[in-house]
Specification:
The chain is an alpha/beta fold and 163 residues long. The chain is built from four helices and eight strands, in the order βαβββββαββαα. The structure holds zinc ion. The site of zinc ion has 4 residues, from helix 3 and helix 4.
Length: 163
């Protein structure tokens, strides 16, 4: 897997995050990319990038034209982004997956990279068992959010933030 970044954040730490959140990150074929971009874009039907500089942050994953997991964050909003509460999958009946508190910008990167890379894993292994698949209304987004929450807690333990 390749890592691409143009955000103001040390590449060494992005590599650490990528390897931590995705067990497949090292094993994935080279056509898989994790990209940290300081401007949001969509990929149109021709495989071209269509930019929108008004969107401050987001995460997307594309299976076309390449398998690409992207974390968007405008450099100007890095400082004030966190703390925030991220509400995963609000469509789920009973709202099983609750709001996740992202304390720092680092936690935002961990959560979003985990969520988007999980989509690449879903496409890479179409028969994998999805987390939350026993819940009514659950889907690939629930799986990606549950995976990301789990990785965030592992990260806090790994960094010694949780004892
Ligand atoms: Zn998603």
């Amino acid at each position: 897997m390749q890592l691409v970044s143009n955000i103001k954040y040390p590449t060494k730490r992005l590599v650490e995050i990528a390897n931590f959140v995705s067990p497949l990150a090292r094993r994935m074929p080279k056509k898989y990319t994790l990209e940290f971009s300081n401007v949001w874009f969509d990929i149109n039907g021709e495989g071209e990038r269509v930019y929108d500089e008004s969107i401050p942050w987001d995460g997307r994953a594309y299976s076309y034209p390449l398998n690409n997991a992207i974390v968007f964050i405008r450099d100007e909003v890095q400082e004030e982004l966190c703390p925030m509460i991220w509400w995963p999958n609000e469509k789920l009946p009973g709202h099983y997956v609750r709001g996740t508190y992202l304390k720092t910008f680092e936690e935002f990167l961990v959560y979003t990279a985990a969520h988007e890379l999980r989509h690449l894993e879903q496409w890479h292994n179409p028969r994998m068992k999805l987390l939350g698949s026993d819940l009514e209304g659950s889907d690939i987004e629930t799986d990606a959010d549950m995976y990301a929450i789990g990785k965030l807690f592992e990260w806090r333990r790994y960094k010694g933030y949780l004892k």
